[in-house]
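Technical annex B. To support the medicinal chemistry partners, we prepared a structural model of the target in complex with zinc ion, based solely on the information shown next.
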Amino acid sequence: MAILSDEAIVLGARPFSNTSLIVTFLSKGQGKVRLVAKGVRSAKSRVGVGLEPASENHIEWSRRTGSGLGTMRKCETTRVYQRLWKDYEAMRVASRLLKILDVVLNVDEGESAHFWLLRSSLEALEAGAGTAGMEGVFLLMLLKTMGLEPGLDYCAACEIKPGSETARFDIATGELRCARCPEPAAREMRLRAGAVAAMREILRLSPEKCFSIRFAASLGPEIIGCAEAFLQYHGGKSLPRRSGHSSVTR
Ligand SMILES: [Zn+2]
């Protein structure tokens, strides 16, 4: 039985019994962690608020070798992003980012880069950053942390920088094809020049700076669609479907 501790952000929680929850965290140094939190649903529990989605905690847990489920021993809440609970749109976006990470990472998977990316997204939301382009930026940065950075500088066929025309992105190879090279790829998506430029710019920024980028709202769906398709193709997992409704359970 190992005793472990770390800083961790709550990705989600679900009831386990009348008094307990199963809580999924993204820890700073130990990837995704899933724990039984005993007694936290009872009225006497003091850690309840710390187990809401996006809350940050210092947690201590025990775990048997080979088990994917540990037991929470201590939970000290270090940060609650207040704005998320007052701003519906901010919470909707935060919930989506938490769910994406929960789906993409298996238990024990994830690096500190994932933690820092999530934290800087939450900090940007807390600071009132616009939410329109955020998911696209997050997905691109996530691809980068996974070593799946799309190649957007040159057309893969003619090696010329695509101009103002619409290019195509091959989601199998992560490469771009310009309009002059019509040879179709098996799985491709159209990207307008503005979207290509915005994506290139995002990928140049650090996780701390990336959410300050501004681009036309109309490019958002293209960027998200492209990053999502690439991530799904290589991650082998279906991302949760987008909806206009917050599905966070309080
Ligand atoms: Zn070309």
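Notes passed to the chemistry partners:
Strands lie at 2-15, 21-27, 32-37, 56-63, 70-79, 151-155, 167-170, 175-177, 188-191.
The pocket of zinc ion is lined by residues 155, 157-158, 160, 177-178, 180-181 (CB under 6 Å).
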